[in-house]
Design goal:
Layout (H helix, E strand, L loop, with lengths): L1 E7 L3 H12 L4 E6 L4 E7 L4 E7 L2 H4 L3 H9 L5 E8 L3 H8 L3 E7 L5 E7 L12 E5 L18 E10 L2 H7 L7 E4 L4 E9 L4 E4 L1
Parallel strand pairs: 1-4, 5-8, 9-10
Antiparallel strand pairs: 1-5, 2-3, 3-4, 6-7, 7-8, 9-11, 11-12
Length: about 210
């Protein structure tokens, strides 16, 4: 299933304010990624979420692949970065694709520590437009998507994603998993995110 989508942003607070003003999406502070010199804000949506990531320590970020990627992506403003797919056992996926498992952790503002194992985020084997993978090593109620928040728009989940790329390559990478990803021709990369609203309408972020 889709766990979350990542947007690289120049300023976390500005990006959060813009999503609230333009799309009725509330966000909360996430925490600090000590390893990468980045921090995040979370737009909780229930079983999934939008993650805003920004560099908060440029010197530290410059020493990591992920930190440098975030700085490069936001040179001209905010933009979509990647899709993260959740799995009950990321080790199986990693073996199939020849990926290394990377443990991760961050501390929430309330002191709770979130831990996960990921595969593919910084891997050279992953084309940048393809999803990376995660298994959460924490209790379900601590999943970022479950953070209590009220969205003025009534958004309550990711309905679909539009991705530029190759449909056959994506299917192979996902092992045939059926996910709500619409593949379009043209420049590779995440292009749009469709969110469900409680009214039955959709919020579309491009």
């Amino acid at each position: 299933m889709i766990d979350h989508v990542v947007m690289a942003v120049r300023d976390l607070d500005d990006a959060g304010d813009r999503l609230l003003r333009d799309h009725g999406l509330a966000s909360v502070p996430g925490g600090r990624h000590a390893r990468w010199g980045t921090a995040n804000r979370i737009v909780p949506l229930g079983e999934d979420y939008i993650e805003l990531i920004g560099v908060v320590d440029r010197e530290q970020a410059a020493g990591t692949v992920f930190g440098r990627t975030m700085m490069d992506l936001t040179t001209d403003g905010d933009r979509w970065y990647a899709i993260c797919v959740a799995s009950d056992d990321v080790d199986v996926i990693a073996r199939r694709l020849g990926l290394a498992i990377e443990p991760g952790a961050r501390t929430r503002p309330d002191g709770a520590v979130l831990r996960w194992r990921g595969a593919g985020l910084e891997a050279p084997e992953r084309d940048p437009w393809l999803p990376f993978f995660i298994t959460w090593d924490t209790s379900p109620e601590l999943h970022p998507g479950r953070t209590p928040v009220q969205h003025p728009s009534g958004a309550n989940g990711i309905a679909w994603l539009q991705l530029g790329g190759d449909a056959a390559r994506l299917s192979e990478w996902l092992g045939g998993a059926d996910l709500p990803i619409r593949v379009a021709d043209g420049e590779p990369g995440l292009r749009a995110v469709g969110l469900r609203e409680s009214s039955g309408a959709e919020v579309v972020l491009r």
